[in-house]
Each structure stands twice: as C-alpha cells, then as structure tokens.
C-alpha cells in the first residue's frame, strides 16, 4: 500500500532518466506524473504524433498500474503538443484510452519540449487509494 502522508516515489520499469526526477510521486491521495513518448531504452519513439501519443499513453497506463491504479483514477490531464494540428490525433487516441466521465483537461501548443524530437507530453494528476 502506498503511504499518502508523505511524498513517495512510484517505482516503475520506465527508462531511468539521468535527470533528477521521478516518473511519478504520490502525496496525500494524489499521484503526480509527467509522461513522454520514450521507449524502454529511453529513445523518443519514431512514427510521428500517432506513435508518440500511443507510447505516452502506454507509459501513463504502466505508471498508474505501478501505483495500483488505472486510467479511471485520472482527475486532470494537461496536454502539450508542438503543433496545433496534432490535437486531432491526440483527441482520437485519448478517447481510445479514457472512458466517461473523462478527466478534466487542458491542451497547450508550445514552441518545443525538453527533447527536440518530442511532439507530445502529458502532465497528469490522479487519485490514489489510501
């Protein structure tokens, strides 16, 4: 069981970043995570916005499962894309993963993300059982 009275890292099998970060943290019943389109080797997946969105959502599912949760626990999603035209693809795939009632969400078009070849990033807040 995850303790909710102090900050706890969620252990995943996602690529271990060299940056000072955790893929997810829980505190007081909330999971905080940011997900990007990388594979097990840490490489940004090829195949454009479709492949990157799927990988990002698959990484999210994995992270939630490691915390004992599912996509049904997601409360809010902040979507970052590097081109407005990508939002149609992200919306289509998002609807394949999430069920109603959908999480609250916002979408932002940004000039770029931390890794130049990334087209999408998700910041997610989810409820975790105490």
TrEMBL record:
Record's protein name: RidA family protein
Which domain of life does the UniProt lineage start with? Answer: Bacteria
**Any Pfam family matching the protein:** Ribonuc_L-PSP
Q: Which family does it belong to?
A: Belongs to the RutC family.
UniProt cross-references to InterPro entries, sorted A to Z? RutC-like_sf, YjgF/YER057c/UK114
Which PANTHER family does its entry note? 2-IMINOBUTANOATE/2-IMINOPROPANOATE DEAMINASE RIDA (PTHR11803), PROTEIN HMF1-RELATED (PTHR11803:SF58)
